[in-house]
């Protein structure tokens, strides 16, 4: 649709600013079970115009209400009472989370039309497979995966609201601070049900520097000085973590992990239903989010292929939500990007090409690393590549099934296979911090399992007879790849695994048998 195209062309920064502003004008209401939608909206409109709203299920029914004016929230807050402290004592923090109950429920007639609830999680894989079998091509199957798994408009609003509610606490200490989501919540590759990564940003330091030039005095704040930025970060996060723990309505399981490479606070935000990770300003992570945003906007095949490959990897136990020696979703996404840069003609540009298109305002040097690239999507020429997703999926498996991981690494800056700088089994250059490998955690057995699965999948796609399978009501195309490859195929796989180190084949086959049982549970549970 035209509306979608016009939203697609906004720069990353414009979208973020718009969403953060929207979240500031938003409240969350826990609703009574027998709710008349019209009456609720009628009442809320007495405080100001309601610009948008939706309902969702979260231990009962909740409503997200976006007002046109921020002042409407103050008006509503004036009308809301603090709950009486008869049963337990309360922390009298006036947030934007409210509970509405009916004063005399009997007299209020229940509305005949049931409320429309926006889903906040994706369908189980077994239901997905049934849907895929009804599609008419692998391309259509891949777009079904994308549509079922991608973040909805409503879910994105909820993510920004979670950040905005944390900001309300941060602002008590640091009135200029912002809390912004990064990573999968904003890079167009987020999946329903994924965590919200957010960071605390003290944005105004640059602006003040220019103002200080005026007048006869050098003026600056007297500030607490600490020996390192890391210590300052740890102190700030520690205090805000305590704040959320002690006073934050609906914030539970608060864990402070302050000695990590990137100190963070983990917590559950029950009102929105998200698991959240809060860290301090992380400009490079934000640049990575924007880079993926650009790639995701350039061509609709990019996101369809990423979502498909990630769903496939999940089903076969190649990825896992727990940290470990598995390939991460971020690494997998970067592998798809690299593959798309390697097509002929390329489907997406290399990072160096995006850097050449950058102008003055796109220049970003962060901690000595050059993170510059163009932000205006209109400056990037569309690709001339017309390959279908059917072809691309099969070629992806073929490419990485035969990739020389022993010698080569994956470099998105150059879009070329380059010699590995060190001996990690899988080496993917961090696009900005050029001395880091984003897949350093991956061990040899996991990589070999990935290669074996890719070969198996390429083989299944090449040999299949779609019409016959459809007549026999058998899963075909992508659906056939989302069923764990069982014991029956392990003998076939032995043939296709010639050339892999024999010592890892045994552990690989064992892990396949294990995974067969596990991945079905995992895939359905995630």
Number of strands: 13
What would CATH call the class of the domain at 126-135 and 300-348 and 383-462? Mainly Alpha
Gap from first CA to last CA: 31 Å
In the CATH hierarchy, the third-tier topology of the domain at 126-135 and 300-348 and 383-462 is known as Poly(a)-polymerase, middle domain
Rg calculated over all Cα atoms: 25 Å
CATH architecture of the domain at 126-135 and 300-348 and 383-462: Orthogonal Bundle
Specify the biggest β-sheet: 5 strands, mixed
Strand content: 5-15%
- The low-confidence runs, each spanning 5 or more residues with pLDDT under 50, are 487-492, 516-526
Pairing-aware structural class of the strands and helices?
alpha+beta
Count of individual helical segments:
19
Into which percent range does the helicity of residues fall? 40-55%
Overall 3D shape? globular
User: How confident overall, as mean pLDDT?
Assistant: 89
Q: In order across it, which strands form the biggest sheet?
A: 5-6-9-8-7
Description:
- The protein is an alpha+beta fold.
- Among the domains are: 22-99, Alpha-Beta Plaits (2-Layer Sandwich), CATH 3.30.70.330; 126-135 and 300-348 and 383-462, Orthogonal Bundle (Poly(a)-polymerase, middle domain).
- The chain contains 19 helices and 13 strands.
- It has a 5-stranded mixed beta sheet, with helices on both faces.
- The longest helix is centred in the C-terminal third of the chain and has 24 residues, at 502-525.
- Residues 487-492 and 516-526 have low confidence and may be disordered.
- One of its GO terms (biological process) is RNA 3'-end processing.
């Amino acid at each position: 649709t035209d509306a979608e195209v016009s939203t697609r062309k906004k720069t990353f920064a414009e979208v973020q600013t718009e969403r953060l502003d929207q979240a500031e004008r938003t409240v969350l209401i826990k609703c009574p079970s027998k709710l008349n939608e019209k009456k609720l909206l009628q009442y809320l409109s007495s405080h100001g115009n309601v610009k948008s709203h939706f309902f969702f299920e979260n231990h009962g029914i909740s409503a997200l209400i976006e007002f046109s004016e921020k002042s409407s929230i103050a008006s509503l807050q004036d009308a809301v009472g603090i709950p009486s402290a008869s049963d337990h004592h309360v922390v009298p923090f006036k947030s934007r989370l409210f509970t509405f109950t009916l004063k005399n429920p009997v007299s209020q007639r229940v509305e005949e039309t049931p409320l429309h609830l926006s889903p906040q999680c994706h369908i189980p894989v077994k239901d997905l497979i049934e849907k895929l079998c009804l599609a008419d091509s692998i391309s259509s199957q891949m777009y079904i995966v994308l549509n079922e798994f991608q973040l909805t408009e409503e879910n994105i609003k909820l993510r920004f609201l979670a950040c905005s509610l944390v900001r309300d606490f941060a602002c008590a200490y640091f009135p200029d601070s912002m809390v912004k989501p990064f990573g999968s919540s904003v890079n167009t590759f987020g999946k329903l049900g994924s965590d919200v990564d957010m960071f605390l940003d003290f944005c105004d330091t640059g602006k003040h520097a220019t103002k200080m030039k005026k007048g006869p005095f050098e003026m600056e704040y007297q500030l607490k000085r600490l020996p390192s930025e890391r210590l300052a970060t740890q102190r700030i996060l520690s205090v805000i973590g305590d704040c959320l723990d002690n006073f934050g309505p609906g914030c539970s399981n608060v864990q402070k992990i302050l000695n990590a490479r990137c100190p963070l606070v983990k917590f559950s935000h029950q009102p929105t239903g998200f698991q959240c990770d809060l860290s301090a300003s992380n400009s490079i992570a934000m640049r990575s989010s924007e880079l993926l945003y650009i790639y995701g906007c350039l061509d609709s095949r990019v996101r369809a292929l990423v979502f498909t490959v990630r769903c496939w990897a999940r089903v076969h136990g190649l990825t896992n939500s727990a940290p470990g020696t598995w390939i991460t979703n971020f690494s997998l996404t970067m592998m798809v990007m690299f593959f798309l840069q390697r097509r002929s003609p390329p489907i997406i540009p290399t990072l160096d090409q995006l850097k050449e298109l950058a102008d003055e305002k796109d220049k970003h040097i962060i901690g000595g690393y050059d993170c510059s690239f163009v932000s205006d999507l209109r400056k990037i020429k569309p690709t001339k590549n017309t390959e279908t997703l059917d072809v691309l999926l099969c070629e992806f498996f073929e490419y990485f099934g035969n990739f020389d991981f022993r010698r080569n690494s994956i470099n998105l800056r150059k879009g070329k296979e380059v010699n590995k700088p060190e001996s990690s089994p899988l080496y993917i250059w961090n696009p900005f911090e050029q001395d880091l490998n984003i897949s350093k955690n991956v061990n040899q057995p996991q990589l070999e399992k990935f290669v074996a699965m890719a070969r198996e999948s390429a083989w299944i796609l090449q040999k299949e007879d779609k019409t016959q399978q459809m007549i026999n009501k058998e899963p075909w195309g992508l659906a056939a790849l989302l069923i764990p490859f069982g014991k029956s195929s392990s003998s076939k796989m032995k043939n296709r695994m010639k050339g892999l180190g024999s010592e890892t084949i045994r552990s690989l086959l064992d892990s396949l048998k294990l995974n067969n049982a596990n991945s079905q549970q995992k895939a359905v549970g995630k």
